[in-house]
Amino acid sequence: MKRLFFVTNDLDDAEEISDEVHAAGVDDHHFYVISRDENGLKTHHLHGSPRLEKTHIIAAGERSAMMFIIPAIIAALVYFFTDFFVILDTHPLLLIGVVLVPLLIWVFSKMAKSFDSYFLQMFRQRLNDGEVVIIIDVAKSQLQKVESIMNNHPKAQFIADSSNLGSPIPD
Q1: 10 Å Cβ neighbour count for 105?
Q2: What DSSP designation does 155 have?
Q3: Which helix (H) or strand (E) holds 32?
Q4: CA distance 148 to 153
Q5: How crowded is residue 36: how many other Cβ atoms within 10 Å of its Cβ?
Q6: Which of 8, 92, 101, 141 lies at a C-alpha separation of 20 to 30 Å from 159?
Q7: What b-and-e string marks burial along 155-170, b requiring 16 or more CB atoms within 10 Å of the CB?
Q8: H or E element: which one contains 92?
Q9: How many Å apart are CA 130 and CA 138, to the nearest integer?
Q10: Listing from the earlier edge strand, what are the strands of the sheet with 2-8?
Q11: Which has more pLDDT, 1 or 89?
């Protein structure tokens, strides 16, 4: 899935977009609206969070750590419970893994934190300026339809896109 980010100054426009996107087959679990206007979100029946700080964000550092921890655990299990490493005589590789894996986790978590910080800073600035952030997760088959809907809303401005797996966005 792809995650699309838009901003608009108008909750009425966000409500129209919500109705049209839902009619196109995107459900509430793939459509979020973030605004500082808590009452506006309720009165416009918009799915989302009133504050970015309240949203559930999986830190990119944690995601990158999981990318290395899981393979490291598998490698350790293979080392201790099979003869695979003995057959290959790869004890030096195990030593490298003990040093290299933590180093890579640290490097990738630092890089990922800057990615999270960029998104959080961008969202906070937009929200502080009174804008409404619209986040839409779309399947490949829905992408063209959703983009067409958004093109019909000149008040909504596209700001970014990413994979929904790696985005610091609400679940």
Answers
A1: 18
A2: T
A3: strand 31-34
A4: 9
A5: 17
A6: 141
A7: ebeeeeeeebeebbbb
A8: helix 91-128
A9: 26
A10: 48-49, 31-34, 132-138, 2-8, 157-163
A11: 1
Name which of 31, 37, 34 is nearest 4 in CA terms: 31
Is residue 39 within 8 A of residue 54, CB to CB? The reply is no
Rounded Cα gap, residues 147 and 32, in angstroms: 16
- 164 in Cβ contact with 49 (< 8 Å): no
SS3 37: coil
* Rounded Cα–Cα distance for residues 64 and 69 (Å): 9
User: Measured between alpha carbons, how far is residue 142 from residues 14, 68, 93, 153 in Å?
Assistant: 19, 32, 45, 17
pLDDT digits (tens, 9 = 90+) for 19-71: 999 999 898 888 888 888 888 888 888 877 554 544 444 455 555 566 667 77
The answer to whether residue 146 scores a pLDDT higher than 70 is: yes
**Residue 83 pLDDT > 80, yes or no?**
no
Question: Percent of the chain, pLDDT > 90?
Answer: 20
Using DSSP bridges, classify how beta strands 2-8 and 132-138 pair: parallel, antiparallel or unpaired: antiparallel
In this predicted structure, what is the pLDDT of residue 165? Answer: 57
The 10 Å Cβ neighbour count of residue 30 is 20
What tokens were used for 38? Answer: 């808590």
Q: For position 155, what pLDDT does the model report?
A: 92
